[in-house]
Write a structure and sequence with these properties.
Elements: E1 6-9, H1 16-26, E2 30-33, H2 34-42, H3 46-53, H4 55-68, E3 74-77, H5 88-95, E4 97-102, H6 105-113, H7 128-146, E5 151-154, H8 160-174
Parallel strand pairs: 1-3, 1-4, 2-3, 4-5
Helix pairs in contact: 1-8, 2-4, 3-4, 6-7
Bound molecules: shikimate-3-phosphate.
Length: about 180
């Protein structure tokens, strides 16, 4: 395969950006994060976009961005909600190999509790149990989209370096 793109999909906080950057470095590929691209295009943080224009405006920005992307040998970290809206899973299929990083709500809630205030969709939660419930609800709505991915990787109880190793094997098998 001369050019390949890897699209990381999954709930917020699962580690798409950190893992994506590391994977891209190891494979000498480019790395992009769709949230970062939207922030630079709009000149605002994701949180400001949600606060000032609302979620549906943000979802339109995500879909517009996907239509414009021209990728070559790139690892992409997607926003957690991107696969769910505007037929984006199909657009992503045209762009590359979609990899779903799967994690359970209880594992994810422990990680996200510390950073919840920075996340527009989580900032109101009052306790870690509530956070786990919110994540579980979100997952039950999103899972059917995520699971259309070309590869599903269970990342529960795995350190980032192990996840990167698993992904390296996956990419090697593509070639
Ligand atoms: C969102 C996830 C965020 C960001 C926005 C909405 C979501 O991206 O796109 O806050 O709906 O799950 P990350 O998954 O990169 O945190």
């Amino acid at each position: 395969m001369s050019s390949c793109n890897i699209i990381l999909i999954g709930l917020m906080g699962v580690g798409k950006s950190v893992i994506g950057k590391e994977l891209a470095d190891r494979l000498s590929m480019e790395f992009i994060d769709t949230d970062n691209l939207i922030e630079s295009k709009e000149g605002k943080s994701i949180r400001e976009i949600f606060d000032e224009r609302g979620e549906s405006y943000f979802r339109q920005l995500e879909a517009d961005l996907l239509k414009e992307l021209k990728l070559e040998n790139t690892v992409v970290s997607t926003g957690g909600g991107m696969p769910v809206y505007h037929n984006n899973m199909d657009t992503l299929a045209e762009l590359g190999e979609r990899v779903y990083l799967e994690i359970t709500p209880d594992r994810l809630s422990t990680r996200l509790w510390v950073v919840r205030k920075k996340r527009p969709l989580l900032k109101e939660v009052q306790s870690i149990d509530e956070l786990e419930m919110v994540i579980a609800e979100q997952l039950s709505l999103r899972e059917k989209f995520y699971k259309k991915s070309d590869f599903i990787l269970d990342v529960n109880d795995k350190a980032s370096c192990e996840i990167v190793e698993d992904l390296l094997k996956f990419v090697k098998n593509l070639k």
